[in-house]
Request: fold
Amino acid sequence: MKIMVAVKRVVDYAVKIRVKPDKTGVETTNVKMSMNPFCEIALEEALRIRESGLAKEVVAVSVGPTQCADTLRTALAMGADRAVHVDAGTANVPPLSVAKILRALVQAEQPGLLILGKQAIDDDCNQTGQMVAGLLKWSQGTFASKVVLDKENQKATVEREVDGGIETICLDLPAVITTDLRLNQPRYATLPNIMKAKSKVIKKVTPEELNVELRPDIEIVQVTEPPKRKAGVILSSVDELIDKLKNEARVL
Amino acid sequence: ISTLIVAEHDGGFVKPSTLSAIAAAEVVSKENSISVLLAGSGPSVEKAAQHAATCHPLVSEVLVAKAEELEHPMAESWAEIVKMVQQKGSYSHIMAASTSFGKNILPRAAAVLDVSPITDVVQISEPRLFVRPIYAGNALCTVQYTGLDPCMMTIRSTSFQGEVNPDAAKANPATITQIDISFLNQEIVGKSKWLSLSSQESERPDLGNARVVITGGRALKSAENFKLLEKLAEKLGAAVGATRAAVDAGYVPNDLQVGQTGKIVAPELYIAFGVSGAIQHLAGMRDSKVIVAVNKDADAPIFQVADYGLVADLFEVIPELLEKVPEKK
Reply:
């Protein structure tokens, strides 16, 4: 079985983002970019499945500008066998178009499993996995915190983090799985593997070559900073806190 | 303007998060004609349909998909049901709450209908103009939906609280219609199977709707110490939440996590014990009305968003609060 993993290049999770003064977006030039943390978890899961002998090959794919090749190079250094970069140039690729691109790649590569992060930490959309599953008419296991494959019966048992606790479902393969935080702890790329990754192949295609039209259904009107909270006060005792909550904030 | 609400129910009632989605539909238009779509099996979905029919004056129709295999919400069947209902009803909007239910189903249904969904809307300025947080709420993005109908979205329930006069709603209950789901064949339903749900039953209010939320971070040091928080929660009539660090350390189950990828809360009073205040955590609670932070570290970022701060050891503060806080009636 082959596993495909989608990875996204985003502003590093530790960066304190700045909204551009002209309100057109968030500053990304000269800002540290990294692989979306949920995508690292997705890739790690695919690698572990391969290492357990249940899959033969892990293909990492990414959609976005030229620099996405760096993110794919990281994926190769972590252990992906090869990579596909769908170069969209400077165009903004909305999630539905990403899902259609992934559908086209899945149809070409025929993986038994497509794993994605549950959301990207830049736009916080939490959509792409569900959408590609719908387009492919595959079963979906979103927000996974545990995945167990049954190769013989072509099924995956997925534990999902839902609002009420942990839900367990069983999916027919092929399936789409999106990863939650506690699925695994992603590995670091070692120096020898970073060196080895340099000779691995990143295939480049364009959305046009995949016959996917980038349809901008959602126009960004402006990006602003959220209202700031007023600075609070530091109190000196529990008694003072109770008094403030009772008589000033009136919440007790 | 007409809106289809993808509704969630539990124990014979439409969930409060779904009522928030209905409140958001009213913000889209005061003249919105709202249809509520429910799926399930047995008497509980029928009872929930009764509730849906009288929960809001703008609800004109309740659609019920009833079948044994719909007892648990699976995205594969739900997406096809939404598609079928949309093809019949031609709604201008389809909305759900940003719960794990809505987040799982709505984007899939949108893709099946070939439209782009909008996630986690916190403000509706015009029927197609919305505000949604990005970068863990560190920026707000205003978006205009320019695609074809239906305009599909999930809404953040803490941003839309329904103030409904129940008498006005009950005076004119909506019609309840069973929908034909014979098209749901084994090819759709058979792909995925629900096995189980493990949850910890709690007497306390639900994290998403509680008036008071108290959370603990890694500084609580153990599952045992979280019991201290629970005691205080009981006294305050509060829900208990936690940071990612506390969940990862195994002190509490995952569904208590508050933050960018966990629950979003906006209670009247939020008390954080031993929480440093990572941006991912702040994303989940920054809209709380009053924030109290108790932390030994005076430089903890949580103090920058707290209305009241106590630089103190939580193991001294909690017992003192337990002793001095007035009992919740």
Q: What stands out?
A: Chain B has two domains: 2-189, 212-324.
